[in-house]
């Protein structure tokens, strides 16, 4: 069977002469944040319609299960996944472990400058490319304009210190019991919030090969987090929350400020999903006076082909379709495109001008989490010790000193 032309494959179109036998692709995706399950199902249905020789079996799992699913599928031989969604922090581990297919030679050479650098880091390791960027994401500061107005606050905060100051005003005036809500469960969600604050305070995870998260800006970041809890400004349940919990609390009108991914913008302004629709503003996460003007974490994700896939050409066809500029522009309400030109396209900007404006500033300052093959181990150690600080079980100095020792042993 001759594959039909992949529409609208403007940049990554395959040669129409390529022939594929009837094939079912097994694809692994995430069930939260970014593109919705409905969006992904719609995209793949469009692909199948244009490519009747290929069908796609979709599996959705929580982010927390994604990493281990990819690793364990390597033992399934050709019965494993053909396409996987993976986080920006995993390429080093997956490349070193041989879990992903090197697709450097498949990627058109002229794509480099058309896609944001922060998106390319998602799929690149040692100058080789292991997939295509698909989700360009960072966390933004969402704020409730009505609550700020009720407290007599005329403008949203421009620094993290002002976030704390305005939160205190909101609490003192009885506008909201807990002005702040975060995703600080012992998970990667907390690490993303922490990374944002580390960047704002000018800190680093490593200095050369040595861990540096027990001093300077990295220490100041966790102290900021702990102080917001101790002062009663942060909802204490934040230490158990994931991103969807944050969205729920904020959408119920139970918080004035929230740090969350792009997808929350559309949902928090949807009256069927939110009690505060139309009252919300969004801005880049602020900076620290004298140190930074804005802060952001690189939460981007890519699509790759596991090394044991028996259908690499067909898998690349689907990846090429899903990451195509026109396709991304058609589904830009929950996840903004990885393509630079898309940010001036009406279908992307209309109705979410404030978000696109915030993105243009935040994308430029996205800070990476540590790019190391042992990232998962590093993150797990940090999660444990950061969480113990937030729960008041350890001092920040003692907890992070211990974390440095443990990370030094594996690095």
Describe the structure.
The structure is a single chain. The protein is of the alpha/beta class. The chain folds into 2 domains: 23-137 and 299-366, 3-Layer(aba) Sandwich (D-Maltodextrin-Binding Protein, domain 2), CATH 3.40.190; 140-297 and 374-410, Periplasmic binding protein-like II (D-Maltodextrin-Binding Protein, domain 2), CATH 3.40.190.10. Helix content is 39%, strand content 15%. The chain has 16 helices and 15 strands. The strands form 4 sheets. It has a 6-stranded mixed β-sheet, with helices on both faces. Strands 2-1-3-14-6 form a 5-stranded mixed β-sheet. A hairpin with a 2-residue loop joins strand 4 (124-125) and strand 5. Helix 15 packs antiparallel against helix 16. The longest helix is centred in the last third of the chain and has 16 residues, at 375-390. The chain is globular and about 65 Å long.
Indicate the topology.
Layout: E1 23-30, H1 37-50, E2 54-61, H2 63-73, E3 83-87, H3 91-96, H4 117-120, E4 124-125, E5 128-129, E6 132-135, E7 140-144, H5 145-150, H6 160-172, E8 180-181, H7 188-200, E9 206-207, E10 210-211, H8 216-230, H9 243-251, E11 257-260, H10 263-268, E12 280-286, E13 294-297, E14 301-304, H11 312-322, H12 325-330, H13 346-349, H14 353-362, E15 366-367, H15 375-390, H16 396-410
Parallel strand pairs: 1-2, 1-3, 8-11, 13-15
Antiparallel strand pairs: 3-14, 4-5, 6-14, 7-11, 7-12, 9-10, 12-13
Helix pairs in contact: 7-8, 15-16
């Amino acid at each position: 069977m001759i594959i039909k032309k992949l529409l609208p494959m403007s940049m990554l179109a395959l040669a129409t002469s390529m022939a594929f036998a009837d094939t079912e692709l097994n694809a692994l995706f995430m069930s939260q944040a970014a593109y919705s399950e409905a969006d992904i199902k719609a995209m793949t249905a469009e692909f199948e319609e244009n490519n009747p020789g290929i069908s796609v079996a979709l599996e959705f799992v929580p982010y927390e299960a994604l990493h281990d699913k990819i690793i364990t599928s390597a033992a399934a031989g050709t019965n494993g996944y053909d396409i996987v969604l993976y986080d920006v922090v995993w390429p080093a581990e997956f490349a070193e472990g041989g879990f992903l297919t090197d697709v450097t030679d498949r990627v058109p050479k002229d794509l480099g400058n058309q896609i944001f650098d922060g998106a390319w880091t998602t799929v690149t390791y040692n100058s080789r490319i292991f997939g295509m960027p698909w989700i360009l994401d960072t966390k933004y500061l969402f704020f409730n304009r009505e609550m700020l107005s009720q407290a007599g606050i005329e403008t949203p905060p421009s620094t993290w210190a002002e976030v704390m100051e305005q939160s205190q005003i909101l609490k003192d005036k009885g506008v909201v019991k807990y002005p702040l809500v975060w995703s600080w469960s012992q998970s990667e969600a907390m690490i993303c919030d922490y990374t944002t604050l580390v960047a704002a305070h000018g800190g680093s995870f490593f200095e050369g090969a040595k861990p540096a998260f027990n001093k300077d800006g990295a220490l100041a970041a966790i102290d900021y987090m702990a102080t917001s809890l101790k002062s009663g400004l942060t909802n204490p349940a934040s230490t158990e929350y994931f991103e969807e919990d944050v969205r729920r609390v904020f959408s119920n009108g139970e918080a004035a400020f929230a740090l969350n991914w792009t997808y929350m913008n559309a949902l928090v302004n949807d009256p069927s999903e939110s009690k505060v629709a139309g009252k919300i503003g969004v801005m880049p996460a602020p900076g620290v006076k004298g140190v930074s003007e804005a802060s952001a974490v690189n939460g981007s994700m890519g699509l790759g082909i596991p090394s044991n896939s028996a259908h690499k050409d067909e898998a690349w066809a689907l990846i090429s379709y899903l990451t195509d500029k026109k396709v991304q522009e058609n589904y830009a309400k929950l996840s903004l495109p990885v393509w630079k030109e898309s940010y001036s396209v009406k279908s992307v900007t209309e109705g979410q001008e404030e978000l696109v404006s915030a993105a243009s500033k935040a994308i430029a300052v996205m800070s990476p989490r540590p790019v190391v093959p042992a990232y998962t181990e590093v993150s797990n150690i940090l999660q444990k010790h950061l969480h113990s600080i937030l729960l008041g079980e350890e001092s920040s100095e003692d907890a992070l000193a211990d974390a440095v020792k443990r990370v030094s042993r594996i690095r």
